[in-house]
Amino acid sequence: MPERFSELPADSSADRLVFRPVRLRRGVFVCPGPFPPVVVQAPGRSHGRPKIASRKEARPMARPDKAAGVAEIADKFRGSNATVLTEYRGLSVAKLKELRRSLAGNAEYAVVKNTLTKIAANEAGITELDALLVGPSAVAFVTGDPVEAAKSLRDFAKANPLLVIKGGVLEGKALSADEINKLADLESRDVLLAKLAGAMKASMAKAAATFQAPLTEFVRTAEALRVKREAEQGGAGEPAPAAEAAEEAAAE
């Protein structure tokens, strides 16, 4: 008990009252009463210089939600055949929704945090985006046609200059903003497949005609020989026109 409690007169009514201590902060209490309040330090706490934690002890532990976010972004990097990094500073929520609709079916457009994205990209084996992860960043994770995704981003950036294409990665190779625009100038996969199918169809028709030509000649020659044989068996005289045709066909 503090000394002030013992200083009270024996007949004082204070010794018959119970005053609950009031907590000021952790480990520090004040005892109210009719006398000047007494501040009491909880036992077991150091009153000297506070201990300075080492660098290892002071490092904060990774929060579970951050670890889950890194894992999710890393999975998106691994599951994409291309990624395009953009800056969306100044774009409204409505514009971002419009951009996502234009990319639907080919890419997922996600606003990301630079630090977590850098960690996730490195975990997925991608280091080409490290220097570009500054400012408000959003990534288009392309799972469909990279050409169509590049076209959508380029066209949206032309109509909305606040969208800035920084660069990207295609099949493990780094792409600059100019290279992404050049990629957008290429014909889409569907168009290329249609042209390839047309070329293959024309080649097959040409090959069929080539294979069919000798057979036709053979049939014509066999028919001519048959006519000639029948004409010879028919007797003497001038050869029939059919026989002459057979001789000409045989000569060919």
From TrEMBL:
Keyword Zinc-finger on entry: no
Gene3D superfamilies xrefs: 3.30.70.1730, 6.10.250.290
InterPro entries: Ribosomal_uL10, Ribosomal_uL10-like_sf, Ribosomal_uL10_bac, Ribosomal_uL10_bac_type, Ribosomal_uL10_CS_bac
Keywords noted in UniProt: Ribonucleoprotein, Ribosomal protein, RNA-binding, rRNA-binding
Basic and acidic residues: bias regions: 54-65
Top-level division of the source organism's lineage: Bacteria
Region annotation (Disordered) ranges: 43-65, 229-252
Subunit structure: Part of the ribosomal stalk of the 50S ribosomal subunit. The N-terminus interacts with L11 and the large rRNA to form the base of the stalk. The C-terminus forms an elongated spine to which L12 dimers bind in a sequential fashion forming a multimeric L10(L12)X complex.
Family statement drawn from the similarity comment of this UniProt entry: Belongs to the universal ribosomal protein uL10 family.
HAMAP family: Ribosomal_uL10
Role this protein plays: Forms part of the ribosomal stalk, playing a central role in the interaction of the ribosome with GTP-bound translation factors.
Protein name: Large ribosomal subunit protein uL10
Organism: Yinghuangia aomiensis
Lineage: Bacteria, Bacillati, Actinomycetota, Actinomycetes, Kitasatosporales
Annotated gene: rplJ
